[in-house]
Design a protein that fits this description.
By secondary structure, the chain is mainly alpha-helical. About 75% of the residues lie in helices and about 0% in strands. It has 27 helices and no strands. The longest helix has 21 residues, at about 360-380. Mean pLDDT is about 90; it is low at about 5-30.
């Protein structure tokens, strides 16, 4: 289970060294040095809980992982590494902040390698990506044979949408440890996100063979099959996962797949089951949001608006500012009148300006998403001055942050405004940067057609029509685009 919904030289300037010369174990670590990141704790009980948590993390049992990490810090209140990993995995903004701050306070008491781990994971949450990535690279170079570290890094890179880098790190770990199941899981996702389903399925077959009685291999296989458009086969894998462990959470995968199949009522029934057993408030509200999007797929505007407004209220009550802002942003995306959409987008921005427990990276990335939608909707109104101002704000953000989300939002917004001005040649480089995003892909298809790049237009059209992700962007763009292709094909 790994739900996720131009790579920049500055950020990854040390990456070639990581996978090149520095990857030589003889050069990376002194003779007789430990091959794994140290774990500093004074308590045997805490160490046992920590090790159990890491095994659960490798099986993608996140609620159990968090439970045992919390037990570890209870046994040892000075367990810095456990604190920073709780911050990394928790979806509770208050817990993220408190454990991140505690890990930073304790950093001077642990090994230099653990200090690098804290600098990496804390820096990423604080939107300090350059020192964070530098610390990650230093750790990977220092411990080239630490398979768990490679998995942690690969998993984090996947969530940052940096799939090529994730695959490179994970494949290096698999070259040393071919049967490391956790790395096979994540590398399969990496290949799927890069469109290489042959390698994704090969990795997933190996993963299932290694752990046939665990739920996550089947859950992950279901998601990758769904990404490849094999929806019935995906449902079969999710149901195997549910039979193995009914508490694992694969009902969510069934619900997402039904939503993509157009079976929205059945999807909502499955989301309702998933909501009941959600392990946290954040999981519950996230599942409510996905359920609300089924009304968008049915084009039931009244029900969609009511459900999304309910999500915003529930997120507000739970102190989940990012999800509250996201619900308002989606209302702004779905609203047919661009002027009315501005009210929803303003409400989303107001949420982020309020005093909330929210990490700097979550706040800035959601702000970037809002600005992107704002630029697009203003361009629909032909208010190019205001649209360009929104793009300029994004450009400033992109110049100071190496967040992939912010970079893609900037290029998507810039491309959308240029297309609205019929500046197709100028728009293409921006849109190509975000060519995995449905809106950018649709606009890129239009720009290619308008500039006579027929082969490129056909290639991006095929890619967009085959996009099977349970996201609001897919719901708003892909079904209509598929119908438009059919209509064009039927024209004499």
């Amino acid at each position: 289970m790994l739900p996720r919904w131009c790579l920049y030289l500055l950020l990854f300037s040390s990456f070639p060294a990581l996978v090149g010369a520095k990857s030589n174990p003889a050069q990376a670590t002194p003779k007789n040095a430990s091959t794994t990141v140290p774990v500093t704790t004074s308590s045997a009980q805490a160490r046992n809980s920590f090790e159990k948590a890491m095994r659960e993390f490798e099986q993608y049992r996140i609620p159990e992982t968090l439970q045992d990490l919390r037990a570890a810090i209870k046994a040892d209140p000075n367990f810095a590494q456990a604190f920073i990993l709780i911050s990394r995995m928790s979806q509770d903004p208050a817990e993220q902040a408190s454990t991140r701050n505690r890990a930073k306070q304790l950093a001077s008491k642990v090994s230099p390698s653990e200090q690098l781990l804290i600098r990496w994971l804390a820096g990423a949450q604080e939107n300090n990506y350059v020192p964070a990535i530098s610390a990650m690279n230093d750790l990977l170079a220092r411990y080239p044979r630490d398979q768990r570290l490679a998995y942690l890094a690969g998993d984090w890179l996947m969530q940052q949408q940096r799939y090529e880098q994730a695959v490179a790190v994970l494949e290096r770990a698999l070259a040393l440890f071919p049967d490391y199941a956790a790395a096979l899981n994540d590398v399969a996702y990496g290949y799927a996100d890069l469109g290489n389903f042959e390698k994704a399925f090969a990795a997933m077959d190996r993963y299932v063979a290694l752990e046939p009685d665990q739920p996550n291999p089947h859950d992950s296989y279901g998601e990758i099959l769904r990404m490849a458009g094999k929806l019935d086969a995906a449902l079969e894998q999710y149901r195997i996962s549910i039979r193995i462990d009914s508490n694992f959470g694969s009902e969510l995968g069934v619900a997402d797949t039904y939503a993509l199949m157009g079976k929205e009522r059945e999807a909502r029934e499955e989301y309702d089951r998933a909501i009941v057993f959600a392990p946290s408030n954040a999981d519950r509200v996230q599942r409510e949001l996905q359920s609300a999007e089924t009304w968008i797929r049915e084009n039931n505007r009244k029900s969609a608006e009511r459900a999304l407004s309910d999500v915003a209220r529930h997120a507000h009550s739970a102190g989940l500012a990012r999800l509250e802002a996201e619900a308002h942003r989606i209302l702004g995306m779905y609203e047919p009148d661009p002027r009315a959409a501005m009210k929803h987008l303003q409400a989303a921005q107001d949420v982020l300006r309020e005093e909330h427990q929210i990490s700097a990276s979550d706040r800035d990335e959601e702000q970037a998403r809002i600005l992107r939608v704002r630029a697009t909707r203003l361009a629909e109104l032909q208010d190019m001055n205001s649209a360009s101002n929104a793009v300029k704000q994004l450009e400033t953000m992109a110049g100071t942050s190496r967040s992939q989300v912010i970079q893609l939002c900037y290029h998507g917004a810039a491309g959308a405004v240029l297309v609205a001005q019929a500046k197709f040649t100028e728009a293409i480089p921006h849109l190509e940067e975000g060519a995995t995003d449905p809106e950018s892909m649709r606009l890129l298809w239009r720009a290619y057609n308008s500039t006579g790049a027929t082969a490129e237009a056909q290639a991006i059209a095929s890619k967009l029509a085959a996009l099977n992700l349970p996201t609001v962007e897919q719901a708003l763009i892909v079904p209509r685009f598929r119908l438009s292709l059919v209509s064009r094909a039927e024209q004499p």
